[in-house]
TrEMBL record:
Protein name in the entry: DNA polymerase III subunit delta
Catalytic activity annotation: DNA(n) + a 2'-deoxyribonucleoside 5'-triphosphate = DNA(n+1) + diphosphate
Domain DNA polymerase III delta subunit-like C-terminal: start-end pairs: 210-308
Family statement drawn from the similarity comment of this UniProt entry: Belongs to the DNA polymerase HolA subunit family.
EC number: 2.7.7.7
Electron transport recorded as keyword: no
Species this protein is from: Acinetobacter silvestris
Xref: Pfam families: DNA_pol3_delta, DNA_pol3_delta_C
Tagged with keyword Nucleotidyltransferase: yes
Domain DNA polymerase III delta N-terminal: 20-131
BP GO annotations: DNA-templated DNA replication
Top-level taxon of origin: Bacteria
Enzyme class: transferase
Record keywords, A-Z: DNA replication, DNA-directed DNA polymerase, Nucleotidyltransferase, Transferase
Length: 329
């Protein structure tokens, strides 16, 4: 059986058999595990954890599932790792599912590709247990999840405030939750949060991320982009991560120029498509020809393979994305 995150929250107290949680959303994983652990404590379920570093570790997992302590009637085993059981361990898994319905095997894995999801391991658990994808691919899914977090804090957001929060944090649900907590602490007497509250609380904060740099670059705001870049450098952000951000945005712009009808397929948010289209109108396609070489120069400078100053080159790259030119030849 496949269920989503919110369905899994509702079923935590009755979970038995075999479950797989897989994905790359730390907020969803953290919340689910907290919910399960609280339920186990209430029900006095013994909990053990195993970290899988080799296939042979699975044998220890199934040995533990078949050997309760004298003080427990039920057992919950948490397994963390990205190594699936081999054929022998898969037999042990099938035997456990068929004969041990009172315990819980909870397997926590990172995001899986399509071929992995079709493997015998996933097929066995899906057919006889529960598979939960820790994902939130659409804005409505993210808003549903964050609405639960807002309810915990006793606040409600107006719809335009939700849209602003979504755009401010992109796919980072954990950062969005932290922002909900911050705005609640800042305005404790306001159960209804408006976009003005979020803007006052979050937009003017002195901390920036590479997401903020991306927004400034696409908007063509050279002053803001430079300010954010200088902050990132001062706060110890690796040049390689800043380069990754620049490369990603440059690549998206070049791909969108070649495929103007495929913005969603390229991974551009629906709410941001117009921003990228405006950036293309601001930039001259001839500039795209120089971008790959500039990125290579930055990479070489970061790795110490050239005498050029990486930060100066990055600033040049920032300016070019904003439609300006530094250090003209």
């Amino acid at each position: 059986m496949k269920i989503d995150y919110l369905q899994a929250l509702k079923r935590a107290h009755e979970a038995r058999g075999a479950w797989i949680l897989h994905g790359q959303e730390p907020l969803l994983e953290q919340n689910l595990l907290d919910t399960f652990r609280k339920s186990w404590n209430v029900q006095e379920v013994e909990r053990q954890r195993f970290d899988i570093s080799s296939v042979s570790d699975w044998k220890n997992v199934f040995n533990a599932l078949n050997s309760l302590s004298l003080f427990s009637q039920h057992l919950a085993i948490e397994v963390h790792g990205n190594i699936k059981p081999d054929a022998n361990a898969l037999k042990l898994l099938k035997n456990y599912i068929q004969h041990n319905e009172h315990n819980l095997l909870m397997i926590i894995m990172p995001k899986q590709d399509s071929s992995s999801l079709k493997s015998a391991f996933f097929q066995v658990v899906e057919a006889n247990g529960v598979v939960v994808a820790l994902t939130a691919n659409y804005p409505q899914d993210r808003q549903r999840i964050l609405t639960v977090e807002a309810d915990k804090l006793g606040i409600q957001l107006e719809q335009d405030a939700w849209l602003w929060l979504e755009q401010h944090h992109e796919h980072n649900l954990l950062a969005a939750k932290n922002s909900l907590m911050r705005v609640h602490d800042t305005f404790p007497d306001n159960p209804i949060i408006k976009i003005e509250h979020l803007y006052e609380c979050l937009q003017d904060q002195s901390r920036y991320t590479t997401f903020d740099l991306s927004d400034a670059l696409i908007a063509g705001n050279l002053v803001q982009a430079t300010k954010i870049f200088q902050y990132l450098i001062a706060s110890g952000e690796p040049n390689s991560l800043i380069l990754w951000t620049l490369s990603k945005e440059m690549r998206l712009l070049m791909q969108l120029y070649e495929q103007p009808q495929n913005a969603l397929q390229l991974g551009i948010w629906k709410t941001k498509i117009s921003n990228y289209q405006q950036a293309l109108r601001r930039l001259h396609p001839q500039h795209f020809l120089t971008w790959p070489q500039l990125l290579l120069r930055i990479d070489a400078a970061i790795k110490g393979m050239s005498q050029e100053n990486a930060e100066h080159l990055i600033l040049q790259c920032v300016a070019e994305m904003c439609g300006k030119t530094l250090f003209p030849v």
